[in-house]
Structures are given as C-alpha cells and as structure tokens.
Fold this sequence. Notes:
By secondary structure, the protein is of the alpha/beta class. It has 6 helices and 10 strands, in the order E-E-E-H-H-E-H-E-E-H-E-H-E-H-E-E.
Amino acid sequence: MMLSCPLCTSTDTAPFHRDARRDYLRCRVCALVFVPPAQRLDPAAERAVYDQHENSPDDPGYRRFLSRLYDPLRRRLAPGARGLDFGSGPGPTLSVMFEEAGHPMAIYDPCYAPDASVLEDRYAFITASEVVEHLFAPGRELARLAARLEPGGWLGLMTKRVTSAEAFAGWHYILDPTHVCFFSEASFEWLARHLDMRVEFPAADVALLQRR
Length: 212
C-alpha cells in the first residue's frame, strides 16, 4: 500500500533513502521527502527533544542565524506591519527581533504558547523558522496559515532544503528524529501554485511566499 504525501496528499510516492533508523519516501508530484507516520516519535519523546532546545533572544549567534529569514522579510514589510511567529519554541526570538523593529507580533507554539485564538486573526506576515520539517500535515497547516494572511501578505519559511539523493544520504538534517518532512525548491514551487501565491528564495534555507 502506497503512503500518501503529507504535503499534496498524492499516493504517487516512492522510496528515496533508508538509514539505520528510518525510511524516507519522495512524492513524485510535489517532491516532498517524508518519513512514514509509523516511524515518527510519539508525543512524549518528541516533546523531550524540544525541551532540550536552549534558544534565547540574548544569544547573538541565534539572532544571526534567524537573520537569514528576518532580513529579507523585513525589507518587504510596510512600517508597523503586524505578524505572527508560528512555532515560536521555548525561547521566542524572531518575534522579539520584529518587535524591536516596530512590528507588533503574536506567537503560537503547540507546546510553549498554545493559545490557538491567535490563529483566528489576520496578519501582514507570518513566520515559521525551523518549523515545517516537524509538521505531520504540512499541506494542511501551511494552507491554514496562508488563509490568515492579508492580501499581499507574506509567509516566511526557514528550513534546509533537499538538493539531491547523494547529499541527502550524508545530511546532518535527517539525524534529528523530530524532522519528518524535507522540502526542496520544487516542493515550495508546488505549494505556491496550490495556494495561488508567488515564491522567492532569498537564501539557501529561506522561502518567502506572497499572497496575491
């Protein structure tokens, strides 16, 4: 039985890679590479990994890391544009950076800031830094976020991208057991068409999608 793709729901998927821990399938429609649901961590084990993260707005190195998304997105925003940081984590930092630049921010994280009421508002921009690779249903979640954007609004995503099967085999990114979805440029291009958005790639691990 073929497994359906968690991004586009196609069942046209095929084996892509296997290591000692997991299998990885690739969708022939949207090019997403994903881990079969049966090989994901259970919720308690997943939360235990997240609790080990020690990100903080006081860490200059972490701010530099986030600037790869922050800098190109901020240049595209109107003064005072309001945003949402989705998947803000245990030490929200990207939201702090935008607030320091005069952008009011809401945050949401299913573990650390679970107030889902913020997902009912409208925003000029929404960010998700190092988030989409953790999503069990990225197609549904990203469509929900895109629907909360104002016309012309931006969805800023930061995640490392699949480039080739050879690079994937030795890629450190697949060693994190909470990483279950791996996007390529083709995956984001499919997503942009599906959501009627335009997409730009200002950095090797950044995709900016704009609502038309």
